[in-house]
From TrEMBL, chains A, B:
PANTHER family tied to this protein: FLAVIN REDUCTASE-RELATED, UPF0659 PROTEIN YMR090W
Origin species: Halobacillus mangrovi
Record-linked SUPFAM superfamilies: NAD(P)-binding Rossmann-fold domains (SSF51735)
Listed Pfam families: NAD_binding_10
Protein name, per record: Sugar epimerase
Segments forming domain NAD(P)-binding: 7-192
InterPro entries referenced in this protein's UniProt entry, alphabetically: NAD(P)-bd_dom, NAD(P)-bd_dom_sf
Length: 216, 216
């Protein structure tokens, strides 16, 4: 299985491409914004493709052709300006969804925010709300497609070493999770067809990633 | 017919409530953000309701109950920050659409931007693109409902006196239009059932508003 990792040069993305390249049956195609980001991925033996999420759907679809799955882990992040939130977290995400459809790639894994419900929008602090709105509409767009999607809602991200131990369910108590473990959860979701059509929150916990995913 | 005017205190909104109150068969309910904005509308004999577009759908639905149509002419405008673009032009619009459904109000007239197509997003200047994205997704959301909608795409707005003469069609050449004439076009659309399910661009031209609307 070949996986296009959108946002490969992000912190989760780099962990993910590393895990994918170490795995037996999966290989990564790293979608990056600048050619100078390529060396990290080339050293891992991963293919790279240079595309900007502000490019059009046709360009993104061309990068998507020939893979078996797309993972969206790009993010302007909640701390960039809301202009990039609109262009990347919402419109960039939707363009990769449309590009997947155009390229005939049915499997799509979205890295969302912990809670993108209407209630979460209403209760979000003012500075964070536009990010929640953007992620909300991207998730809605994906649910509305016929793609074999999985939507992962990780808790508050940190850069601690991963433990490989998580808790995952439709809703879990708010908590943190190392980015490294989010990357493990993504790979496990790609490798487990039972995650298709599901979405779940995930935080640090006491189950192995595989067990947590299987018991969803 | 009673019409909830969302964004009544905006420049188009004030013209619209004025025209509505002068008309025979229509009356306005002005949705405003602050009580101190009410006097303008009370002098016109229009009902007012104080609701913020960042309130929740239930609150907006309550303001929507009992009217026959909703007009969305609120706008953070392209010159406010992109955070408000997300919260008002996208999420605020969607919440009024959902509120209309919840309140059982089937008629909905959206004042969109001149061109909200995918192509317009791709070709927009960087500072304007988030606004086009927000209006794009609000329009998509509306088209996807069963509401009796009309989507109006006015050209570049100016504050000249209206002439009552416009050009309207699915696509017209880019041009300007006085806000006063946009308000006339909205009222004419509300009064002409043949505009249901249609969307059109409109700029200054040489047809009467009624003729232009009828020949769509």
């Amino acid at each position: 299985m070949k996986v296009l990792v959108v946002g490969a040069n992000g912190q989760i993305g780099k962990h993910l491409v590393t895990f994918i390249q170490e795995s037996e049956n999966v290989e990564a195609k790293a979608m990056i914004r600048k050619e100078e980001q390529a060396s990290f991925f080339k050293e891992l033996g991963a293919e790279t493709v240079v595309v900007d999420l502000e490019d059009d759907i046709e360009t993104i679809a061309k990068a998507t052709e020939g893979v078996d799955a797309v993972v969206f882990t790009a993010g302007s992040g909640p701390h960039t300006g809301p202009d990039k939130t609109v262009m990347i977290d919402l419109d960039g995400a939707v363009k990769t969804i449309e590009a997947s459809k155009a390229a005939g790639v049915n499997r799509y894994v979205m890295i969302s925010s912990f809670d993108t419900t209407r209630e979460a929008i209403q209760s979000a602090p003012e500075s964070f709300a536009p990010y929640v709105v953007a992620k909300h509409y991207a998730d809605v767009w994906l649910r509305d497609t016929d793609l074999d999607y999985t939507i992962i809602h990780p808790g508050r991200l940190n850069n601690e070493d991963g433990t490989g131990q998580v808790e995952a369910a439709s809703t879990v108590e708010r908590g943190e999770i190392p980015r490294e473990d989010v990357a493990r959860v993504i790979l496990a979701s790609l490798e487990d067809q039972t995650t298709i059509g599901k979405e779940f929150q995930v935080v640090a916990g006491d189950k192995s990633v595989q067990d947590a995913i299987q018991s969803l």
